[in-house]
Amino acid sequence: MGIIEQASKRLEELRRSGVELPWTEGADRPGTEQPAALAGSLQELAVAGPALAAPKGHVDIDLKALSARGYLVPGAARSRLLDEYRAIKRPLLANAVGSKGREAVERGNLIMITSSLPGEGKTFTSVNLAISMALELNHSVLLVDADPTRMALAERLGIPRGRAGLIDLLLDANLDLADVELATNVDKLSYLPAGSQHQLATEIFGSQAMGSLLARLAAHAEQRIVVFDAPPLLHAAEARTLAPQMGQVVLVVQASGTPRGSVQHALHLLEDCPLVLTLLNRARGAAASSPYGYYAY
Prior knowledge:
Layout: H1 3-16, H2 35-48, E1 57-59, H3 63-68, H4 80-97, E2 110-115, H5 122-134, E3 140-145, H6 152-157, H7 166-171, H8 177-180, E4 182-184, E5 189-192, H9 201-205, H10 208-218, E6 224-229, H11 237-242, E7 248-254, H12 260-269, E8 276-281
Parallel strand pairs: 1-4, 2-6, 2-7, 3-5, 3-6, 7-8
Antiparallel strand pairs: 4-5
Helix pairs in contact: 1-2, 4-5
């Protein structure tokens, strides 16, 4: 089926679903042109693009080291941490792909993890959330190092730095996502390094190339969840540039550690984001809303 036929089919699907298409008035009259309608549908089809290609590279995550540092790893015995992340991921997945009686959030499969300040547990959260989501039967996960200055994610995963990654992909039109994405030894979990350090990382994150990449990833919501480990909001402009382009933002807050003013400032910076959730890290005792008292929304 050619692209024009695909566009026409999409328009017919919209009509049947009850969507009003004022720019197609008179469409049933012979000889009536519908350039605007076709243009809109062609644009929608172009955003989705072809299926995402499999990663060309592979890397092994140091699961033994992760486990020793208290992270989730596949195949480990059931634990409080495992159950905590089962609870944490459920609303995020529901927002990403929809659930009974609720539609998916626009770009809901693009999830950015950040914090107000360093040391609040955002990378810990990113890794555990990605691994927990990869354990789902119907989802694959791409874990993105979106902190091009510190690149803490590579260190946590036990992966050497120096590989091409996100920054390189955005700067080189000849690169495809599959060229820099890395499959891992965790089933259904792939990793995208931050790539080369660049003094204009903030501007690169706000570029048309980034917008196009995110649109392509968002169009494949049913295919994969994308978790971005971003820098702290109050310390790096990259996070503030990325946040409005995400479908969901999770702000990690360290219980009894993060100053209230810092949290308020961070939330103010996220006002333009469609959906912001806060995750209270290291919350112990009966006051935590989590049934296990360690993490809480």
